[in-house]
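Much of what follows relies on a compact textual record of a protein's fold. A record is reproduced here so that you can trace the correspondence yourselves:
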Amino acid sequence: MLQGGGALGAYQAGVFECLAAMRQTPEWVAGISIGAINATLIAGNPVERRVERIREFWETVSSFPFDAPAYGAPAHAPGARDIVNETNATIAMLFGVSGFFSPRVPAAPFQTPGTPAAISYYDTEPLRRTLERLVDFDLLNSGAMRLSVGAVNVRSGNFVYFDTRHQRIDARHIMASGALPPGFPPVEIEGEFYWDGGLVSNTPLQYVLDQPSHRDRLVFQVDLFAARGEMPANLGEASEREKDIRFSSRTRLTTTYELRRQATLQAARRLVDKLPAALRDDPDAKALAALPREGAVSVVHLIYRSKHYESQSKDYEFSRASMLEHWAAGMTDTQTTLEDPRWLARVRHDQGVHVFDMTSPSERATKTITPSTPPRTPAP
């Protein structure tokens, strides 16, 4: 499950490369915004080309002329990296990002009112071409791997998922999931217009767990914004902190609610199985018996945690240096988790909800959730 977060999405690429190297191949990928793009690159390519295609995408969108040691200042000099990052973010804002988006010409005020071009600063046609070049949409829709991407209907405000189990998906559906206003235009699909799913929820967890499954499920939830952070010291840090809270808060709420709901469903079914025959015809017992029978759910939580020199522009700072750092962080966090003795020695449960977060600097924890113990997402 891949959260939205723009340029930070290279962290998810690193997570996937590590999983692929350790033979952890998902049966289903779900994403929102940049997470939808990464998920599509995974599901829309054969096993042996997935990492290669994801890397090609991230090298395309991070093809900037400047790097961390630029401008004649050493990268480790105080404040040097901050300046370089802000410069690259400004370049992206002014000139767009190769293979992703470009400034709209003429600008929105000079476009025909009522059109997508009139309500967006950038043109995302480059992204369409990139997706059509890097993704095999016939393979994507073959059923070999399930793909789900979230978007929001502009007119109704309803959250919707495009799912290869229920419909054929093409580049429009992926672009819709990442159409964050007012930067990007809404995408029209069958007469309706869609914006970025992160406007409602930045994680696909609820949708994934809403799909009934008798089988045990191992879920890797890869988030790009950490809810916990330090008290801001200046306006720039305040803007960054606000963005972190805005895009992570719904994730934490959804995670807490969904995991509690899963634990309660499983407990209800176990209780019905224990009832004497005389009580099983009770209407309440029948109602509980009709609940879906769920297998155990294990959630591995991986969260990108910002570097001290990253600012509120970190989600549109597409420099090569930052991309490589994000990618490396994803690989490191995943390897740390899968090699942790507690993960290797974990007990395989046939019921219940279990959360693993091995990389949190403040709380390295595993947690088993029961209905009587309100679940708490491990502290980012």
About this structure: The chain is about 40% helix and 15% strand. Residues 148 and 163 are 4 Å apart (CA to CA).
